[in-house]
Structures are given as C-alpha cells and as structure tokens.
Amino acid sequence: MSTEHRTAVIGAGVMGETLLSGLVRAGRRVDQLLVGEKRAERARELEERYGVAVVSNVDAAARADTLALVVKPQDMGDVLGEIAGVLRPGQLVVSLAAGITTAFIESRVPAGVAVVRVMPNTPALVDEGMAAISPGSHCSDEHLAEAEALLASVGRVIRIPERQQDAVTAISGSGPAYIFFVVESMIEAGVHLGLPRSTSSELVIQTLVGSAKMLRETGTHPAVLREQVTSPGGTTASALRELEIHRVRAAFLAAMEAARNRSRELAEGQ
Ligand SMILES: NC(=O)C1=CN([C@@H]2O[C@H](COP(=O)(O)OP(=O)(O)OC[C@H]3O[C@@H](n4cnc5c(N)ncnc54)[C@H](OP(=O)(O)O)[C@@H]3O)[C@@H](O)[C@H]2O)C=CC1
Ligand SMILES: O=C(O)[C@@H]1CCC=N1
C-alpha cells in the first residue's frame, strides 16, 4: 500500500474506535487517517485521544481511498445515501456491520467502488481480534488484500464466502460477549463460595487465558482437554453433570442460532 493511502473510519463507536486505535498502534500515520463523526463532543474526544482529523462523513468519503463503515446496521442506508455522491470508482468500502450484505452496499454506491464485508470482534482492542472477510462482486484481489491488511493490524483474518457471514457473526462477532458472560458467572460463583472478589477474578481470568493458550498451542480437541481435567469420581465430573442437567450445551446452540437469525433479520430490514 502506498504511503499516501488515506483510510477513513465512519462511525467511531465501540467497534469503530477499536479499529481506529489499532491502526494508530500499528503505526499508520495519523495524517493518513480520517474519522467521520457527527457529535461535536465525541469528535473532540477522538481528536484529543488520537490526533486524527474528525470531519464530516462526506469529507471523509471524498478524501479517503479506503472507507471503513462502522455504524449500526440500521444507520447504514442513511450513511450510504449521504456519501454515495462523492464516492468514485477504485475506492474501497469496507463494511463492519452485522447483517448488511455487499449486494445492498453495491446497490447504493457508484459502479466500480469495491466493497468488502467484514465481521470483526472487540478483542481487536488488544490486537487479538478475529475478523472474517468476504469480497463483493466488483472487488479485485488487491482490494481484498487491502481489507485484509486493514484488519490484520488488529488480529487474525480469514476469508470466507459471504453466505457464512451470519453464522460467523453469531460465533466470533458476538462471541466475546458469551465468554465474558461465562467469566462473570464463574467470578460470581467464586464469591458465592466465599472467595474475595479479587481472588476469584484472578483465578478465573488466568484459567481462561491458560485454557485458551492450551487450545491454541496443543491443537488438541477441547473434549480431550476437558477429559484430562475430569478425574474419575472427582470434582469436575460433579460440576459437568450439573452443566448437562441445566442444558448448558443446548443453551449455547440456541443462543448462537438466535444470533445467526438476528443477523439475517438485520439483512432483511436493510
Ligand atoms: N461492538 C461489537 O462487538 C461489534 C460491532 N460490529 C458492528 O459494528 C457496528 C457498530 O457497532 P458498535 O460500535 O457496537 O455500535 P456503537 O453504537 O458503539 O457505534 C456506532 C457509532 O456510529 C455513530 N453513527 C451513527 N450514525 C452515524 C452517522 N450518520 N455518521 C457517523 N457516525 C454515525 C454513532 O454515533 P452516535 O452515538 O452519536 O449516534 C456511534 O458512535 C455495527 O454495525 C455492528 O454490527 C461488528 C462486530 C462486533
Ligand atoms: O451485537 C451486535 O449486533 C454486534 C455484531 C456482533 C457483535 N456485536
């Protein structure tokens, strides 16, 4: 990518700021970054925090080579309507919104604008993001590689067919929330069992990090790793029996189906 390549982030909420901060950490020149943000107070905050120029969406779209759209799916139609007039062939639009299809974006932008759909996640804030990217119908290999590089600055990236995006949203997009929910529940359980909250937090967080590292570094199936912890007639077997009685496995399946279905609904509402 040339050093004179401008990237704009439109919609600097939780995910937009996560991406922006990652680009700054990865060494992108701040004079090559633009942010589209409508609230003056938020604009000042971002300018102070990152030293980036916060401009109107139209300005950002006109000046950038790559545009990351990180507004809510429900706002995507309005934002595309606002910027379509200044977009030009050769630009790259990367959408990070759940449910919004590349076909929808392509129908709202001039012909020749390349579109990539991405499902990122918030661990990008600590450069451990997981992003899945899918090209639109007029996207060159160079444009896809450019989108990949954008997301690779904050974690891992895989390429997937767009039809898998709703499922991916349910697994890795929303996934951190399920993990935090489990962590929160285990910490509370520790407190219930009489541990100080700080002790319980430290135990649970290190257990999570250690278990994640084992999964990655050993490549062993999680069921095998779980069996290794489960001594015959021991404590883990007693706990796991309760999780099965409370249908936790079925609850996870139902939860992720609900997330996948919601992603499809967001697509239908576009
Ligand atoms: N949070 C997450 O974990 C993930 C989110 N995503 C996707 O990222 C997108 C944003 O989600 P999230 O960051 O959680 O939501 P937020 O509500 O935190 O961020 C959305 C941002 O867009 C701004 N915005 C709204 N309308 C406009 C506009 N017309 N021009 C410029 N900015 C605008 C909002 O500003 P204001 O508050 O002033 O309205 C807000 O700052 C969604 O599409 C979501 O599907 C994808 C994967 C993970
Ligand atoms: O909850 C949401 O809709 C967004 C998409 C994936 C994670 N957060």
UniProtKB/TrEMBL annotation:
It is found in: Cytoplasm. Residues 8-99 form the Pyrroline-5-carboxylate reductase catalytic N-terminal domain. It holds the Pfam family P5CR_dimer. Keywords: Amino-acid biosynthesis, Cytoplasm, NADP, Oxidoreductase, Proline biosynthesis. The keyword Oxidoreductase applies. Residues 162-266 form the Pyrroline-5-carboxylate reductase dimerisation domain. It catalyses: L-proline + NAD(+) = (S)-1-pyrroline-5-carboxylate + NADH + 2 H(+); L-proline + NADP(+) = (S)-1-pyrroline-5-carboxylate + NADPH + 2 H(+). The keyword Nucleotide-binding does not apply. Pathway: Amino-acid biosynthesis; L-proline biosynthesis; L-proline from L-glutamate 5-semialdehyde: step 1/1. Its EC number is 1.5.1.2. Gene3D superfamilies: NAD(P)-binding Rossmann-like Domain, ProC C-terminal domain-like. GO terms for molecular function: pyrroline-5-carboxylate reductase activity. InterPro entries: 6-PGluconate_DH-like_C_sf (IPR008927), NAD(P)-bd_dom_sf (IPR036291), P5C_Rdtase_cat_N (IPR028939), P5CR-like_CS (IPR053790), P5CR_dimer (IPR029036), Pyrroline-COOH_reductase (IPR000304). Catalyzes the reduction of 1-pyrroline-5-carboxylate (PCA) to L-proline. Belongs to the pyrroline-5-carboxylate reductase family. This is Pyrroline-5-carboxylate reductase. The lineage of its organism: Bacteria, Bacillati, Actinomycetota, Actinomycetes, Propionibacteriales.
